[in-house]
Amino acid sequence: MNKVELEGIYTAYEGGARPVIRGLSLTVRAGEYVIVGGPNGAGKTTLLESINGLAKVTHGSVRVCGIDARKAGHEVRKRVGYVLQSFYFDPFTPFTVEQVVMMGRYGRMGFFRRPQKPDHEVVDRAIGLLGLEDLRKRPIGTLSGGQQQKAMIAQNIAKEPDIMLLDEPFSNLDFSTREFVTRVLEGLAAKGMPILMVSHAFDDLPDRKIRIAIMNDGKITYDDTCDSCEVEAIVRKTSRMN
Ligand SMILES: Nc1ncnc2c1ncn2[C@@H]1O[C@H](COP(=O)(O)OP(=O)(O)OP(=O)(O)O)[C@@H](O)[C@H]1O
Ligand SMILES: [Mg+2]
After folding, report:
1. Residue 3, burial from CB neighbour count under 10 angstroms (0-12, 13-18, 19+)
2. Whether the CB of 11 sits within 6 Å of ligand 1
3. Lowest mean pLDDT: which of 22-26, 58-62, 76-80, 171-175?
4. Ligand 1 pocket, residue 46 CB under 6 Å
5. Which residue's CA is the closest to the ligand 1 atom numbered 25?
């Protein structure tokens, strides 16, 4: 049931002259790793937010793990990892890296319960996976942008979601970290987790067949599987300037 099913969706912002997403259908099944490309403003972030019930879908159907995201966005968000495109932690944010990663567990343990041993183990593993051991006691706001991004990826891995959405997670990451995170994501996909990743960086894709969905002006205009080395050429060919 780890599946995303969108059928003929329209998504609009308050006060927008016309819907940003218009008549989009997409199914992502267990274990699929989908790269979402397309020019700035095409609606990629809006697509991810339509999936996890954060944006207002006015028509069509959004089912995530069988749950209707238009009716039960809160339930959907418990099951979906979402690494945001941009975020900013004030230097005085009163949480350490490990506390931020632990927040990924709140949906499972309830906000007011104390973390149990398994929660700590999952958090330790996520911190280890992203190589954040030396930074775990540091206030999150004192880290560099890339280090913060790694912490947010770790938080979403600690969440143990059924589906992972990532919005340009590589924008602040150095070359070796990109490769490393790609391998981590590939491992998750291999275990059956559907992954949707918005990206403009095509040099660090998993070394296998990739499904690529290109958005232009609120619609998916290309959706096919290709070798990772072909992705960049396809994106160039299929992305229209807005
Ligand atoms: N909160 C908002 N209110 C009104 N319009 C919005 C809002 N967020 C986005 N939009 C509009 O929706 C369209 C799609 O935006 P979206 O952020 O989904 O694009 P994107 O494909 O993620 O672009 P980028 O590559 O720059 O991140 C844009 O025209 C944008 O101006
Ligand atoms: Mg975006």
Report:
1. middle
2. no
3. 171-175
4. yes
5. 40
Of 109 and 27, the one with more pLDDT? 27
Amino acid at 150: K
CB-CB contact of 27 with 223 (8 Å): no
Give me the domains of the chain, ranges plus CATH numbers: 4-238 (3.40.50.300)
* Backbone dihedral angles phi then psi of residue 9, each to the nearest 5 degrees: -85, 150
Q: What's the pTM value of the predicted model, to 2 decimals?
A: 0.93
pLDDT for 96-124, tens place per residue?
999 999 999 988 776 667 899 999 999 99
Six-digit token string for 151: 């912490």
Geometric angle at alpha carbon 65, from 63 and 70, rounded to 5°: 30
> Token match 């070359």: residue?
175
